[in-house]
Amino acid sequence: MSAYSKVVHKVRQEQNLITVIQNRYLASVEFKKQAEEWLNKSPNIENLLSIKKNVKSVKAHLRWKLAEKNNLEESDDCSELEMTRIKEEIAALRNGVLQEIYKEREEYEKLSFLVQKWFPELPLLYPEAGILSYMSSGGLLSHSLERDLLDAEPMKELSTKRPLVCSEIQDQKVLLKGYSVDVSSEGKVIERVAKYHRAWNQQKEKSGLLQLLFLLFCKSDPLVYLMVPYYPGASLRALQADTPLTLQEALKVMKGVAQGLQTLHGANIVHGSLHGNNIFALNRKQGIVGDFDFTKPEEQRAVASTMVVGSLSLVSPELKMGQPASPASDMYAYGCLLFWLCIQNQEFGIKEDGTPEVDVVGMDDKVKSLLQNLFCCNRLTAEQVLADDCFLLVDVIPDSSQPGEEHMPHKEHDSEKMDKKEDAIKINSEENGIDTTLVDKELVHDVFD
């Protein structure tokens, strides 16, 4: 290295050190400013308690209206006009409860920020506020929201194993999934739910994961309900049974699924339950990875009876040999689902190790190469899959139908399908991004005296 290069290298090192010192100085100045401002102040939870009081009042009024509606339905002189009026009042009260609950959540966020930043003793000073339970659930747990106060409709066709009801909050359809818990399992369920939610919260809509909305307990039964968005008819299994995805659509959807798995694996979470019923294709192009049974560890989820699609098992060879679930076993299930979407109705064989025979089916060469790397022992990671040639340019593949044109089941011969797929896979393009949010100092000013 020449003398000039050494000098330039030293100058750059010096510049980097100066930048580090400047940043630390600015951080210490801000710390001192906040410390002086809050030194002689104490947090005020009166806003939170006031909101909780309002919630109780509105809930009491709602219960009274629900009882009035039931009595009117059972009476002989029930007028349609009176029933309509009561239903409108009930809907308004439900919205009022939800608005207060969202205000309560905002207040909890401010107090949680203070606990983490300045006042770790706050939950101990005000145990009645329930700050610790809120924080331990990742901000999902709500003791104010009750399943009985929602206009819930049972969804037995979707699940026979656990209570599952559909409702609507603020014009959004939601599902409430009931899990049976006891004293020993309750904490573990909340821990798993919170870990999943924190992974989603890092990138939110760009995470590729199904959002969790609320976690609530049932007062009458040992159940905990998880509220999630409801996308009727959008699961892969439902779509493939009705109007199968084209290759273009399948690649767009599975790119989103790979993003979801990357988010989970980056948070040290093994999904273990990746199958056709809990992957959703929103608008037939945005892939979303659904949640899983939070009462079970990944080892139990990964070998459940639901881990099959068509005649193809989604359980990886190593899981069948008794090895623990891992990100690699998730990627195997991912590969099987991609294979299932791409082959449509083609016949295929199964090798001795349980993996499908990719070579014998007609398929785009890039997709086939990707699948072979997902079925081998040294599988690709979700990050590597996202960087594969199949997905690098997939975001601008044109849809197979024109705007306003309905998707119809494909009737062509297999060879014609593959020709169309091979033509479409050649025209592609790419997009990406990330965002995070922090609670600003100004948000917590109103919780002080």
Automatic annotation (TrEMBL):
Organism annotation: Anser brachyrhynchus
GO molecular function, one term: protein kinase activity
Record Pfam families: Pkinase
PROSITE patterns the record matches: PROTEIN_KINASE_DOM
Chain positions covered by the region annotation Disordered: 401-421
Annotated SUPFAM superfamilies: Protein kinase-like (PK-like) (SSF56112)
InterPro entries: Kinase-like_dom_sf (IPR011009), Prot_kinase_dom (IPR000719), Ser/Thr_kinase-like (IPR052451)
Domain Protein kinase span(s) in chain numbering: 87-449
Protein's name according to its UniProt entry: Protein kinase domain-containing protein
